[in-house]
Design goal:
With 144 residues, this protein is α+β, with helices and mostly antiparallel strands. The chain has one domain. Helix content is 29%, strand content 23%. The protein starts with 25 loop residues before the first strand and ends in a 9-residue tail after the last strand.
């Protein structure tokens, strides 16, 4: 069974794209700092899709991963980040060029959407102890 990852007229609000059964397969985000390309353009808004088994298995055959296991994160994120600003493609080189804080943000988002099934987190107000949820993907510049 394949997931419907293509945007279309039936795309859900906020950029999340449900598959035919209503499964949310794509999660919009805003990077804390942003990726600066060779032309000096800042790219912050993007979208990450759910990972497939192939996304997690295929990079293990890559010689860069065999040489350095930490490179698995770079390849995996380049496979599941489907959009970043106006970049035509998110490649391993793009992920390599990200600030460490943005890489950590994407790793956390990956974990949340693929293990917990959501890009939201439960939080409690330190002043009044009110419990509520926040969108981890960020909605405002610098927001997360």
């Amino acid at each position: 069974m394949a997931l419907d990852l293509i945007a279309g007229p039936g795309a859900a609000p906020g950029g999340a794209r449900p598959a035919s059964g209503g499964l949310r397969t794509e999660f919009p985000f805003v990077l804390p700092r942003g990726y600066v390309d060779d032309a000096g353009t800042l790219h912050r808004e993007g979208s990450m899709r759910l990972a497939t088994a192939r996304d997690e298995i295929a990079p293990l055959r890559d010689p860069r991963v065999r040489e350095n296991e930490a490179y698995l994160t770079v390849i995996l994120l380049s496979r599941v980040v489907v959009r970043l600003g106006s970049l035509p493609q998110v490649t391993p080189q793009v992920v390599e060029g990200m600030f460490a804080s943005d890489l950590a943000f994407l790793q956390d988002l990956y974990r949340r959407v693929n293990q917990e099934g959501t890009s939201q987190a439960a939080v409690t107000c330190p002043a009044c102890s009110h419990a509520f949820t926040v969108e981890i993907g960020g909605a405002a510049p610098g927001g997360s």
